[in-house]
Amino acid sequence: MERTKWAAGFWAAGAFNVLGVLAFSRAGTNTYLSELYPDVFSGFGLLCIVLWGCAYIAAGGSRLPNPALCAVFAVEKAVYVGTWVVWLARHGGTLPTVWDRDPLTAVFYAVYGAGDLAFGLFFLLAARAARRT
């Protein structure tokens, strides 16, 4: 069965979530990540991010998912972009201090929303393409 040209994007989004959480949380041992934003990045929150990643991977099959599912994925990414903007607005000035304590965590907080924005736009494009088919 031939894969769609969209499959790689869904798999990349899934890898971004799953591998990103595993790397930046140091496989769940980086409590500082959760300390800085427990509402979003608690242990449960990180697990949910991994589950979303698994959903993206599952959607990257032989057909483009239906447009509603792609739109849900885009909205989910928009929510995380929003959390990133809020965190940066409130705490962005502390990034040098975070860097001094844990550079990996500082990098995560500096960039996670940019990746979510990119994949959110990808999901919007996928929703549009799915509507046309």
What descriptive keywords fit this protein?
mainly alpha, 0% strand, 133 residues
Secondary-structure blueprint:
Elements: H1 7-24, H2 31-36, H3 38-41, H4 43-59, H5 67-91, H6 95-101, H7 103-132
Q: How does this structure look, described?
A:
This protein is mostly helical and 133 residues long. The mean pLDDT is 94. It has one domain. The protein has seven helices and no strands.
Silhouette: elongated
Q: How many helical elements?
A: 7
Distance between the termini: 18 Å
Helix content: over 70%
Number of strands: 0
Instruction: Describe the sheet with the most strands.
Output: none
* Gyration radius over CA: 16 Å
Q: Average pLDDT across residues?
A: 94
Uncertain stretches of 5 or more adjacent residues: none
Structural class: mainly alpha
**How many discrete structural domains?**
1
β-strand percent reads under 5%
- Listing every helix as H and every strand as E from the N terminus to the C terminus, the arrangement reads HHHHHHH
Quick synopsis:
It contains seven helices and no strands.
